[in-house]
Each structure stands twice: as C-alpha cells, then as structure tokens.
Design brief:
The chain is an alpha/beta fold. It has 9 helices and 16 strands. The chain has 2 domains: 118 residues, 3-Layer(aba) Sandwich (Rossmann fold), CATH 3.40.50.720; 176 residues, Dihydrodipicolinate Reductase, domain 2 (2-Layer Sandwich).
C-alpha cells in the first residue's frame, strides 16, 4: 500500500513510523509534507516526494493511505479530508480528545470502505500481549490490583501539550499507554475514579502530572501515574491471588525489552519472548489489514472503549474529584 506522511517533522514519525514504513513488505513510502525544506531534505530520500501541502498530497492518485502524526486538535479535520479523498488513515494517539468526534467519525466512514486506525504501537508488542493474555486467562489466579506508570521529563515542554483547549496534558498525551493494561484485565467501567493533579500555570492549564485510582467491584483496584515533569518510569505491576507479575519499558518497548518476572510464594521466574520493534509490528499489521479490507486488532471499537474511560478520568480533573 502506498503511504504518505503528513507532518515529517514529528519525532515519532522520524524515529519509529517512517523507518517501519520503509522496511515493511506491506508499504511503500511515497513521501510527505512539511513546511520546512531542510526537514524534508533530511527525512526524505531522493526517491520520495516532498509534497508542497496536504491538498497536493491528497490529490496524488498514487497515495492510498495517510499517516498523521499531528497535534491532537488537528486529528479530526485532517482525517476527514483524507477520508473524503478516499485515503485510509493511520493517526497518532489519542485519536480524539472528545467523545463526539468518534460519533462524527462513524458518520464520516459509513458506506465508504475507508479504514481509520489509531497508532497505538504498544498494543501490538508480543511481550505485552503474552503477559495480558496469560493473566486474563487465569494462569495466576484472579487479579487484585494493576499498577502502571508512564512518566518522564518532556523536552521541550511547549506547544499544544500545554494547552487544554488543544488536547494537551499528560493524560491525553500518554494516558492510553497507562490505561490499556488496566482495561485489558479489569474492564473499562470502574465504579469510582479519584485523581490528583499537578497543574501547569498557563492560561488553559493542563495536568503536568496525574495520579489516578480506579475502584472496581469486589475491592479490586488499579492505579496509574502519567507525567511530563518527573523521572522516567514505564512500569507494569499486576497483583493476583497467586503471583506478582512485573515488567519495565512497557509503554515504548525497545528491541531488547523481551522479559518479565513472575514472583510467587515459592520462587521468582523470568519469562521471555522474541525481541520486536513495536512500530514495525504495528505498521505491518495495520497495513496488512488495510490491504485486506479490514481493521487491525487495535480497532476503532477498542480505541473508543479506552477513550471513554480516558474521558471519564479527565473529567475528574475538574470538580468534583470523584466520578461515579
């Protein structure tokens, strides 16, 4: 499938997705857009096209799909233009930061045959899939508690990430990673939600750091932390009746991140899967699915289910702090 990129200056595009598009047997990178000529010359090869603007790229009949690594507030408008031009879309997460945009997307896609997918690469990584599958199957007994973190120091800390009206804040930026293991094991409808937030001081403040407690029936709970301004942590810790399952670098796993630890009353055991580039796993599955006319495993249904919980959590940043 012939793919073009809208936003060649994006770090995630340059570091992860563009190299994966070039390697994948399912894709051919035609080129992309950026307002910077120097960025275009640095990112694109001589065989790839620097489109002067988005309209020109969409008008190219060779382009079959678009990858959008744009700021959150631009997602729907650019997806809409791509769909109306007959192009499939892989868009960076979070796909939207309002519930209404999912309903608008349903109407936009109706009877078109066009596919839109959220670029959530962690969901495609075999290590996380293996751990969540084993725990969900009851291999270690009932789940009691799930703890996740995705924190770090974002540099530079500027632009839309510091503007609440544009979908900024740590929850919208990286919350999907922290929430995914929780909903996979405990579901997307906690009974109660509590949050503690360290806000920014801008005109439209965002959550620089957010800590959340999700309470489920039967005393089962989950906690997670997201942050732009702390030390780095990408941890997952699952407590069950029989074991503690732990692993690090869960959110943006590297090729060497292959192991996890299971601790029981009797012993500590290490487990492993083969190494994998999560961007490659995502690109291969998404565009194989697009080519075959169906959604990938991280479908719009799954995206919307997680987003619904994310919006509930975000609502507690305002008053009141508790959501029933």
């Amino acid at each position: 499938m012939n793919v073009a990129v809208c936003g060649l200056g994006s770090y995630v595009a340059q570091a992860g997705v563009i190299p994966a598009l070039r390697r994948s047997p399912w894709t051919r990178l035609l080129g992309g857009t950026t307002r910077s000529l120097s960025t275009a010359s640095q990112v694109l090869t001589t065989d790839e096209t620097h489109y002067r603007d988005y309209a020109t790229m969409l008008a190219d009949p060779e382009v079959e799909a678009i990858y959008l690594p744009l700021p959150n507030d631009l997602h729907f408008a650019y997806i809409q233009r791509a769909v109306e031009a007959g192009k499939h879309v892989l868009c960076e997460k979070p796909l939207f930061f309002t519930e209404g945009d999912y309903a608008r997307l349903d109407n936009l896609l109706a009877d078109t045959g066009i596919l839109v997918s959220e670029a959530f690469m962690s969901s495609y990584h075999p290590r996380l899939r293996a751990v969540l599958s084993q725990v969900a199957a009851g291999s270690y007994g009932p789940v009691i508690n799930v703890q996740t973190t995705f924190t770090g120091t974002l540099t530079p800390l500027s632009g839309y990430r510091l503007d609440a009206t544009r979908g900024g804040g740590s929850l919208f930026d990286v919350g999907i990673y922290a929430i995914y293991p929780i909903i996979s094991l405990l579901g997307a409808e906690p009974r109660d939600i509590w949050t503690t937030v360290m806000p920014s001081e801008q005109e439209h403040p965002v959550d620089l750091t957010l800590e959340a407690l999700l309470s489920y029936d039967g005393g089962v709970a989950a906690t997670f932390t997201t942050s732009f301004i702390t030390g780095e942590s990408q941890a997952l810790r699952i407590l069950t009746r029989e074991a503690t399952i732990e692993m690090d670098h869960v959110c943006t796993p590297r090729l060497e991140d292959t192991t996890w630890t299971v601790t029981t009353n009797r012993e500590v055991t290490n487990h492993a899967v083969a190494g994998c580039d999560p961007y490659q796993a995502m690109v291969d599955e998404v565009f194989a699915s697009f080519s075959n006319g169906h959604e990938p495993s991280w479908s719009l249904t799954e995206s919307r289910r997680l987003a619904h919980l994310l919006y509930r959590i975000h609502a507690t940043i305002q008053s009141p702090r508790r959501s029933n």
